[in-house]
Amino acid sequence: MGNHDHHPYPHPYVGMWVTRDGFIRHELLPNGRYDEARGTRQSAYQGRYTIDGDHIEYVDDTGFTADGDFREGVLYHAGMVLYREERHENKEA
Fold first, then answer.
1. Nearest residue to 28 (alpha-carbon basis) of 50, 8, 7
2. Residue pLDDT tens, the chain, 93 long
3. What is the DSSP string of 10-64?
4. Residue 76: strand pairing partners
5. What is the bridge-based pairing of β-strands 65-71 and 74-77?
6. Which residues of 14-48 are buried (b: 16+ CB within 10 A; e: fewer)?
7. CB of 85 closer than 8 Å to CB of 15
8. Contacts of 28 (CB under 8 A, 6+ apart)
9. Cα–Cα distance between 84 and 62 in angstroms, integer?
10. Of 34, 49, 52, 76, which has the fewest CB atoms closer than 10 Å, so is most exposed?
11. How far apart are CA 82 and CA 19, in angstroms?
C-alpha cells in the first residue's frame, strides 16, 4: 500500500491512539501521515505510515523509522501501549 493511495473510506486504524496516562497522543491521519504529541509538546513527531494487515511501519520527517503491531484493539509501538481514543460527538436532535 502506497502513501498516496486514495481510498473511499479511511483505514479502520485511522484515528487517535493514546497511552493509558494520556502522555503520548498518536494520531493516524487518513492521508497516510501521523502526528504525535508528547505531554504538552504538540506535533513532537510527524511523518508517514503504511499499514499491512495488523503491522504498521513509520518513517518520521527526519528519516527515523519505527514499527508496531495492532493486537486486539491495542497498538504496540516502540515499547509503548496505545489505546484507541473514541470520539464522542454531541448528538443533539
1. 50
2. 444 445 556 889 999 999 999 999 999 999 999 999 999 999 999 999 999 999 999 999 999 999 999 999 999 999 999 999 986 555 454
3. --TT-EEEEETTSSEEEEE-TTSEEEEEETTEEEEEEEEEEEETTEEEEEETTS-
4. 69, 81
5. antiparallel
6. bbbbbbeeeebbbbbeeebebbbbeeeeeeebebb
7. yes
8. 11, 13, 14, 15, 16, 17, 34, 49, 56
9. 26
10. 52
11. 4
State if pTM tops 0.85: no
The residue with cell 508517514 is 48
CB-CB contact of 46 with 36 (8 Å)? yes
The domains of the chain, with CATH numbers, are 15-84 (2.40.128.290)
d(CA 93, CA 85): 24
Q: Answer yes or no: are the C-beta atoms of 24 and 93 closer than 8 Å.
A: no
Q: Which of 32, 61, 68, 57 is nearest to 46 (CA)?
A: 61
